[in-house]
């Protein structure tokens, strides 16, 4: 059918639709939505910052009341660093929705910038959130173990298991963040890039950021920062293997002890669905070449 | 604060072109419930951004900016608005003078096929097609999308070709 005929059919259909809008109700809903949005922003900031601010005096009071070793107080600079990081990041990159009356291209660019920043935050959650806490907690464990045993080897041995537990827990938090990036943010980023690419100007040679976008070349892997990251990657690959081995063993044990009355085929199916979820959460990373230089 | 003149202009425009809200919502959703949700969201966003409405742009381009931005950022997984608020709009099909004929049935079928084809287009192309079907000029489309008029021409030709192919596929389909 010719597009002009479709246009005509569309206009005829449009003329047959009558819409009645309750404007008073609309006004009330906008007020209520605005209040809801401000509440949401307030509680988000409260959750992330105010909780940490409240934790600092509580940490000091508990530490002095129970005569904790000095390493206990290392958590305070960690909390201050995280609060500072979040506040500065909020100021530099306010995650406010784009004004809806902006031209589409402009809105898409703003949305892309916000999604890319969110991806950057979650990919680097190790550096700005997990590492400060890990250092403080592991130092505390080692100092307590040292005080208990009085020797370096004793401190290392006693502190090993709680340290491993903290590392595994934080690795789990890190993997959950990367899972969110893969499942939610990356698809959105690719969708936005595709929309931007489909709107980019093909009639001029203006060198604009979106003019060079080719969705086929969109990187879905974090950028490689050289040898240090390579060492970290090897370390985490081994940790993941250990965690995966532990989880698989636990699931198998769970199937054998709790679900033993179930038919074996059903057990196998459940085991397969559990392990699929684990594989999705912790995808097996293929070994890479050592970076040059 | 929303200026009373802007408010009355917007309301009078909605009175004439309110069906555009429903049409944009229907083009970007699959079910009637989702369509209702998105239409309400478009209305809310339009009302909210009414204070930013500059009279340099026409009401139609301003409205389409809001509607398309909302539709493109709308997620099907959002909490259904219809579950937590009273409907903001009621849609009525105006009775036609002629009795229900085979021609009207064919017309309805064409419109349904058209919606299905639009949903299959890339989102940006779907936006262009909607603007074209609503008889916006190249200058207005360029203002809505933020791209040059010559680029609108190139993109629109491509989108129309794609739409025709999709419609052809539909009409030859089972």
Descriptive report:
The complex is a heterodimer of chains A (about 290) and B (about 170). Chain A has helices at about 5-15, 25-65, 75-90, 105-125, 125-150, 150-200, 225-255, 265-280, and one strand at about 15-20. With about 290 residues, chain A is an all-alpha fold. In chain A, α5 runs antiparallel to α6 (about 150-200). With about 170 residues, chain B is mostly helical. Chain B has eight helices and one strand. Chain B starts with a helix and ends with a helix. The chains are: A mainly alpha (about 290), B mainly alpha (about 170). The interface between A and B is large, with 49 and 65 residues.
Question: In brief, what are we looking at here?
Answer:
The complex is a heterodimer of chains A (293) and B (174). Chain A is mainly α.
User: Helical stretch count of chain B?
Assistant: 8
Largest interface: A-B, 49 and 65 residues
Major sheet size, sense and barrel closure of chain A: none
Shape of chain B: globular
Largest sheet of chain B: none
* Helix amount of chain B: over 70%
**Rg of chain B, please?**
17 Å
Rg result of chain A: 27 Å
CA distance, first residue to last residue of chain A: 61 Å
Structural class of chain B: mainly alpha
Give the SSE string of chain B: HHHHEHHHH
Helical fraction of chain A equals over 70%
Total helix count of chain A? Answer: 8
């Amino acid at each position: 059918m010719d597009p002009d005929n479709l246009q005509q059919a569309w206009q005829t259909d449009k003329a047959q639709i009558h819409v009645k809008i309750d404007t008073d109700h609309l006004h009330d809903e906008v007020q209520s939505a605005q209040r809801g949005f401000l509440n949401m922003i307030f509680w988000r900031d409260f959750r992330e910052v105010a909780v940490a601010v409240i934790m600092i005096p509580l940490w000091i009071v508990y530490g002095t009341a129970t005569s904790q070793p000095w390493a206990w107080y290392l958590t305070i600079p960690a909390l201050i660093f995280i609060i500072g990081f979040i506040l500065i990041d909020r100021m530099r990159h306010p995650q406010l929705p784009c004004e809806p009356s902006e031209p589409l291209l402009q809105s898409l660019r703003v949305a892309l910038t916000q999604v890319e920043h969110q991806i950057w935050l979650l990919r680097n959650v190790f550096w700005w959130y997990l590492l400060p806490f890990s250092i403080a907690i592991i130092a505390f464990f080692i100092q307590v173990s040292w005080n208990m045993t009085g020797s370096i080897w004793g401190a290392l041995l006693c502190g090993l298991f709680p340290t491993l537990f903290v590392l595994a827990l934080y690795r789990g938090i890190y993997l959950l963040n990367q899972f969110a990036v893969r499942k939610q943010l990356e698809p959105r980023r690719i969708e936005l890039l595709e929309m931007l690419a489909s709107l980019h100007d093909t009639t001029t040679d203006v060198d604009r950021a979106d003019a060079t976008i080719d969705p086929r070349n969109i990187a879905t892997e974090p950028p490689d920062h050289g040898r240090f990251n390579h060492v970290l990657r090897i370390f985490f690959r081994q940790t993941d293997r250990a965690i995966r081995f532990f989880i698989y063993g636990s699931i198998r044990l769970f199937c054998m002890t709790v679900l033993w009355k179930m038919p074996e085929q059903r057990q196998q199916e459940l085991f397969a669905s559990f392990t699929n979820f684990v594989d999705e959460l912790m995808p097996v990373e293929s070994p890479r070449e050592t970076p040059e230089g | 604060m929303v200026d009373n003149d802007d408010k009355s202009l917007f309301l009078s425009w909605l009175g004439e072109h309110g069906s555009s809200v429903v049409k944009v919502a229907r083009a970007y959703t699959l079910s009637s419930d989702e369509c209702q949700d998105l239409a309400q969201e478009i209305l809310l966003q339009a009302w909210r951004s009414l204070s930013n409405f500059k009279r340099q742009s026409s009401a139609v381009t301003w409205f389409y900016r809001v509607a398309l931005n909302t539709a493109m950022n709308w997620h099907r997984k959002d909490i259904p608005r219809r579950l937590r608020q009273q409907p903001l709009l009621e849609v009525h099909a105006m009775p036609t003078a002629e009795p229900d004929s085979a021609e009207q049935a064919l017309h309805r079928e064409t419109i349904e096929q058209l919606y299905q084809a639009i949903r299959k287009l890339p989102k940006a192309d779907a936006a262009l097609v909607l603007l074209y079907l609503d008889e916006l000029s190249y200058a207005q489309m360029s203002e809505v999308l933020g791209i040059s008029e010559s680029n609108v021409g190139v993109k629109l030709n491509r989108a129309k070709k794609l739409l025709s192919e999709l419609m052809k596929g539909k009409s030859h389909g089972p």
